[in-house]
C-alpha cells in the first residue's frame, strides 16, 4: 500500500510538472527575488500581460539579442504598452551565466536590460516549472493569467546579430496578437539558444 501511495504521488508530481506550462492553461504561480533582493510574484501582476524571458548574458544567442539592441528595444517598447517584462536567470551557482544579485544588477545595466524585474532562479525551480529549455526562451501570459506563447524570440537560429533584422519576429508578433486580443499563431514552437545551466 505504501509503495502504491508513493508511486501515485510521484506520478501526480510528474503530471503537474508536465502540464506546468501548457498553452491556454493558467500559468503556474511563482515567487522569486529580484536583483534588489525584493520578492516578486507572478500574482503581483494580476490583470496584466506578462512576458517571461529566460536569460544568460554569457550565452552567444543571448548576446546576439542584447548586442543588436533588439531585446532592450522590445522591453522598452512593450513597457510603454503596459506589459510587465520579467527576465529570469536560472543559471546555477558555478555555472555559465550565474551572477550574485549585485553583480547581476551591474551586468543587466551594462547590457541595457530594461525589464520590469531581473529575477534570480539559481535553484532552477521556476525554470523547470515552465520547462525553460534554452536562453533565450520566451513565454507570454495574457491578462487573464493564461499562457499564450512558449517558444523562440525569432526564426533564425544563429548567433549573428545581423540576422535579427532578417528574422521573422515570432515572439513580437505573438505579443502584438495577445495585446490585440487576437489568436496567437504558432503559439508553441521550438526555441533556440544555449541550454539553461540548471543545478545538477
Total domain modules: 1
- The gyration radius over C-alpha positions equals 17 Å
Strand content: 15-25%
SS field, number of helical segments: 6
Biggest sheet overview = 7 strands, mixed
Notes on the structure:
The chain is α+β, with helices and mostly antiparallel strands and 200 residues long. The chain has one domain (22-195): 3-Layer(aba) Sandwich (Glutaredoxin). It contains 6 helices and 9 strands. The strands form 2 sheets. The chain has a 7-stranded mixed beta sheet with strand order 2-1-5-4-3-7-8, covered by helices on one side. Strands 6-9 form a two-stranded antiparallel sheet. β7 and β8 form a beta hairpin. The longest helix is centred in the first third of the chain and has 17 residues, at 2-18. The relative contact order is 0.20. Mean pLDDT is 92; it is low at 1-19.
SSE inventory with pairings:
Layout (H helix, E strand, L loop, with lengths): L1 H17 L12 E4 L4 E3 L8 E5 L5 H8 L2 H10 L4 E6 L11 H11 L5 E4 L4 H5 L4 E2 L1 E5 L5 E5 L18 H11 L13 E2 L5
Parallel strand pairs: 3-4, 4-5
Antiparallel strand pairs: 1-2, 1-5, 3-7, 6-9, 7-8
Amino acid at each position: 500500500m505504501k509503495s502504491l501511495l508513493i508511486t501515485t504521488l510521484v506520478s501526480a508530481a510528474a503530471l503537474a510538472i508536465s502540464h506546468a506550462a501548457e498553452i491556454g492553461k493558467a500559468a503556474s504561480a511563482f515567487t522569486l527575488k529580484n536583483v534588489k533582493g525584493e520578492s516578486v510574484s507572478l500574482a503581483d501582476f494580476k490583470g496584466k500581460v506578462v512576458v517571461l524571458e529566460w536569460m544568460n548574458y554569457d550565452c552567444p544567442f543571448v548576446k546576439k539579442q542584447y548586442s543588436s539592441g533588439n531585446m532592450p528595444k522590445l522591453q522598452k517598447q512593450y513597457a510603454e504598452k503596459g506589459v510587465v517584462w520579467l527576465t529570469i536567470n536560472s543559471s546555477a551557482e558555478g555555472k555559465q551565466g550565474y551572477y550574485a544579485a549585485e553583480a547581476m544588477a551591474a551586468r543587466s545595466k551594462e547590457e541595457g536590460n530594461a525589464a520590469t524585474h531581473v529575477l534570480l532562479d539559481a535553484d532552477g525551480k521556476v525554470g523547470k516549472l515552465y520547462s525553460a529549455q534554452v536562453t533565450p526562451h520566451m513565454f507570454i501570459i495574457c491578462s487573464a493569467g493564461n499562457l499564450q506563447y512558449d517558444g523562440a524570440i525569432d526564426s533564425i537560429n544563429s548567433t549573428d546579430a545581423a540576422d535579427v533584422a532578417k528574422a521573422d519576429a515570432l515572439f513580437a508578433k505573438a505579443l502584438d496578437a495577445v495585446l490585440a486580443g487576437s489568436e496567437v499563431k504558432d503559439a508553441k514552437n521550438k526555441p533556440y539558444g544555449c541550454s539553461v545551466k540548471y543545478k545538477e
